[in-house]
Write a structure and sequence with these properties.
Length: 99
């Protein structure tokens, strides 16, 4: 089923384990670059900076734990995850990049 949109969109989606391993999705490489810091590199560059969202995966995290997007470019994005105290912590997450 095609998405009806006002623009021709490239979409990359995925699920990444807390150790940086790709669990699901294609079109990207995931690398854990530090505690709670993950670099997502797109196989094909976006034409312009994509809109990216991320959220935690699993049921064992507190509602205060967080995943957020940083430094999105046409080639890559960084996802930062943290625990309920706001400190960076390794967490599995899902993401979608569209642009």
């Amino acid at each position: 089923m095609a998405i009806d949109a006002y623009e021709n969109l490239q979409i990359v989606r995925g699920t990444v384990a807390e150790d940086g391993t790709r669990i699901a999705g294609h079109g990207f490489k995931a690398t854990k670059v530090g505690t709670g810091k993950y670099l997502i590199t797109f196989n094909n560059d976006f034409l312009e900076k994509p809109s990216v969202v991320a959220n935690l995966d699993g049921e064992v995290w507190s509602g205060l734990d967080d995943a957020h997007v940083s430094d999105a470019t046409t080639e890559k994005v960084t996802v930062l995850t943290s625990n309920s105290n706001g400190a960076r912590a390794d967490r599995a997450f899902h993401f979608i990049a569209m642009g």
